[in-house]
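#structure-requests
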Amino acid sequence: MTTGAGLLADRHAALLARCRFPAPGTALVCGVSGGADSLALLVLAVAAGCEVTAVHVDHGLRAGSDREAELVARAAAAVGAGFRSERVDVGTGPNLEARARAARLAVLGPEAALGHTADDRAETILLNMLRGAGLDGLAGIRPGLRHPILDLRRSDTEAVCAIEGFAPFEDPSNLDPGILRNRVRRELLPLLRDLADRDTVPLLVRQGDLLADVSDHLRSEARLLEVTDARALAAAPVVVARVAVREWLRQGAPEQHPPDAATIERVLAVARNDALATDVGSGRRVERTAGRLRLVGP
């Protein structure tokens, strides 16, 4: 169905009111894989008045991926958006899912909009809980211009596609039980719904919002702390000191991943003078000299 932004806005006004797109006329890159969530992102971004370019990233990991790009190209043309396709090579080896995601995000750029929904956020919160994440991880995906449809449900994005006559691509990897997210989606969340006798996605999202507020407050407190001053760090409330150390160690770290809890506690032991130095991963060490902490190494 070919249409203009005004007609799209009329058809999807209720959903647009729950989205967080930039001002009309803003140039916006949208990552569009061809699934229901990303196709709905494309439709709603155009309906919001943005100057949209749909970008499909082909990892070359399965036969027929060129047909997915064609699907996205047709959808973009139908709603009056621009389109381009990018090809990336992630090679073979471990952590394929993570490396493919990193390659896709690198191509899209830090300002691109992604089609994550409230269901994705709930899944991420549970995944991070299983991995032992801290407050940031338990907040899940954060709302904002990077995730403009995060308040929508997967059923909403499927409805958008049905209204516009789009047949979303179903990624066969979403059925792979070897991927933990798939088991969380297909087994854990349905079990939680059965146990709670209610839809638990809104509960998890609300919990994520509360933990995000706590995390942001602690980060603001941590910024006031001179993390390399060993005495000040040791004297600070431990919950603030842990956040300060975590943010310090993330600077310059590969992929900016936060350090684990054990690493943070070892650094605090150095601050208390219980140890002179400690390894913090990636070939780096924290050392104490004349009352100051130094991060040394690659």
